[in-house]
Amino acid sequence: MLPKTKSKPKHTLSDLTALVYGPSKIGKSTWCSKANDALFLATEPGLNALEVFQTPITCWDDLLQACAEIAEGKHDFKTIVVDTVDNAYKMCSDYVCKKFKIEHESDLGYGKGYALINNEFHRVINKLAFLPYGLILISHSQERDIETRTGKHTRIVPTLPEKARKLVTGLVDLILFCDLDMKTGEDGKPVWQRVMRTKPSPNYDAGDRTGRLPEVIPLDFPSFMKAFNNTAAGAAASAARPKPEPTASAVAKPQQ
Fold first, then answer.
1. Residue 19 in contact with residue 197, Cβ under 8 Å?
2. pTM of the full structure
3. Residue 215 region, left (φ>0) first, then alpha (ψ -120 to 50), else beta?
4. pLDDT tens-place string over residues 41-95
5. Which of 159, 181, 170 is nearest to 129 (CA)?
6. Where is this region: Disordered (predicted)?
7. Contact at 8 Å (CB) between 154 and 146?
8. pLDDT for position 245
9. Which of 5, 34, 168, 185 is the most buried (most CB within 10 A)?
10. Could you give the angle at the alpha carbon of 31 between the alpha carbons of 64 and 127, nearest 5°?
């Protein structure tokens, strides 16, 4: 069980887990459809304009069955996309309520129903993340009022319930917030560009454990991969570059 060697950093998107979230119709699914050999686990309609491999997921049992088939490995997919993880969580909640024959999570007593749902949700998502495929979870965005020591402010977060959101954001390597960036055009009028934000901010959830990505990237897959791969290539070249031999003056002993 114990390792003999250190693990190597992952160098491809197909080895990573990501949460992609933002407002409706901004292009999240389109972006994910460009991922390498992607399979969509479609928990809601919304892929009608895209030519993708998709499996309709209408309940938690469907998701469990799809995960089992994915784990068998008898396919050519390299990236699994859960679109959306918000609906997947709702299906998990319905599954647990049905299993225990209750109407609502709170019917099992203080905190017990919510704990069962979050444990089941985490079990399945975590298992998916451990499979040898890329995993992308899509979520919508919402504004929430956050209390801090200095007062209250608005923060944009995924629409998952708080505990499920913390489970997901703690699990993934990348948190990519899809947003609109306003710039001033040559005519002085505002020009809106769809972007991805990758670094933490007080105003929204985002993060990049790889350290490869710039803070803002245009919301198109080629731009993302160019930034992601250029940094990886630079790091690999730096590691492979031979270190300079020390000069004579550097190794000479100081005179007494």
1. no
2. 0.86
3. alpha
4. 999 988 988 999 999 999 999 999 999 999 999 999 999 999 999 999 999 999 9
5. 170
6. 233-256
7. yes
8. 53
9. 168
10. 25
